[in-house]
Write a structure and sequence with these properties.
two-stranded antiparallel ribbon, single chain, mainly alpha, elongated
């Protein structure tokens, strides 16, 4: 028997609440995730802003982005993924049919960003 959480919410809600509690802006979060490299900082900020705004069930975090977010917030990437998967499940999406992330294979390592939207297709 599979357990379903009594309350689920989009991962973006968790991120927003945590940022608010810590007094962080989106810029602060991006800096904590990637440091002072201006190019990496800008791409990270844009990717997080996109993820937090779109709130699509099929848009998921890639492993590197989850790792960076986990490091910034002091939680495991698995915790963040589990939050998002619980929300997907509560919205009628089977976790087993989750789209692949942009960083699952060596061929995809050059893909821009760590957020995957299946509607965009293969960018290569």
């Amino acid at each position: 028997m599979s357990r379903v959480p009594t309350e689920s919410f989009h991962l973006a809600e968790y991120l927003e609440e945590e940022m608010q509690e810590r007094g962080w802006s989106l810029d602060d979060l991006a800096f904590r995730m990637c440091g002072i490299d201006p190019k990496e900082w800008a791409v990270t900020r844009l990717a997080i802003e996109f993820f937090m705004e779109i709130r699509e069930p099929n848009v998921i975090l890639g492993e590197p982005m989850g790792t960076q977010l986990g490091k910034a917030f002091g939680v495991s990437p698995e915790f963040l993924n589990n939050l998002h998967e619980a929300w997907r499940k509560s919205n009628g999406l089977d976790p087993a049919t989750a789209p692949a992330t942009a960083d699952k294979s060596a061929a995809d390592e050059d893909a821009a960003g760590d957020i995957y939207d299946p509607r965009l297709g293969d960018c290569k």
